[in-house]
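FORM 12-B: Structure-to-Sequence Request
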């Protein structure tokens, strides 16, 4: 299978995972290892990656030498805050340009503020960031983000942390069919079948955190997600059979039967 390529770098895994909501960094690393993920996203405002020398550093458990660290702007509600946060992250990560932009519009549902997202994306791209962007499942605005220069567009499947799965597959298909950059589902996945469906639709990857971290057994769920992503990608490449309503189609041939 072709690898996932983002900003010119190829990855074997199409599963991207977060690092929040685990009981400790040991569980975080165990789940990441079980997932097979190579890109790991970190909330700069919530997790220490060097901002506080007196606190445990996530990068000791998830080292940049082994994983591609994707700093994100979780908790930002304006373009200015998001840009400022990613400038700090770039300093902490020695100039690392790849980042995940998210600008939220509401603290309850965590839906993206798209005008501020578009504004922040334009600024960051001009400053040389390689922007992967969390956004609404709006085909028009997703195309606008691509045209700004984002290296991946990441529409939500459903609300962050909801576990509701893909609530609007038709919008995702419109986005996928019109895109020239990777489309990665971000937010809303609850279990492995959700991830499989996203991949069967033709998504290039899936980013998740809560679905793994809040499972009863996060490490086992991470393993399940890995398999779900792989199965969905293979099914997409294989091409499913056509749906045939009210028309049975025997699996075995009906001609040349023994005794007929």
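FORM 12-B RESPONSE
SEQUENCE OUT:
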């Amino acid at each position: 299978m072709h690898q996932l390529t983002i900003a010119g770098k190829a990855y074997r895994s199409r599963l991207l995972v977060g690092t929040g909501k685990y009981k400790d960094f040991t569980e975080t690393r165990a789940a990441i290892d079980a997932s097979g993920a190579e890109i790991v996203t970190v909330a700069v405002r919530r997790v220490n990656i060097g901002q506080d020398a007196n606190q445990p550093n996530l990068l000791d458990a998830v080292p940049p030498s082994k994983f591609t660290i994707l700093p994100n702007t979780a908790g930002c509600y304006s373009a200015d805050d998001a840009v400022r946060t990613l400038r700090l992250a770039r300093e902490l990560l020695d100039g690392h340009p790849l980042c995940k932009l998210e600008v939220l519009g509401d603290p309850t549902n965590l839906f993206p503020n798209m005008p501020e997202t578009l504004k922040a994306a334009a600024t960051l791209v001009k400053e040389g960031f390689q922007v992967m962007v969390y956004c609404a499942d709006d085909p028009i605005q997703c195309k606008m983000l691509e045209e700004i220069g984002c290296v991946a567009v990441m529409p939500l499947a459903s609300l962050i942390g909801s576990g509701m799965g893909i609530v609007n597959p038709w919008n995702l298909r419109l986005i996928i069919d019109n895109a020239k950059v990777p489309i990665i589902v971000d937010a809303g996945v609850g279990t492995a079948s959700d991830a499989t469906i996203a991949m069967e639709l033709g998504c290039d990857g899936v980013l998740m955190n809560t679905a793994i971290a809040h499972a009863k057994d996060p490490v086992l769920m991470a393993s399940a997600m890995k398999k779900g992503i792989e199965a969905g990608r293979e099914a997409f490449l294989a091409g499913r059979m056509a749906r045939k309503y009210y028309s049975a189609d025997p699996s075995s041939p009906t001609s040349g039967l023994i005794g007929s």
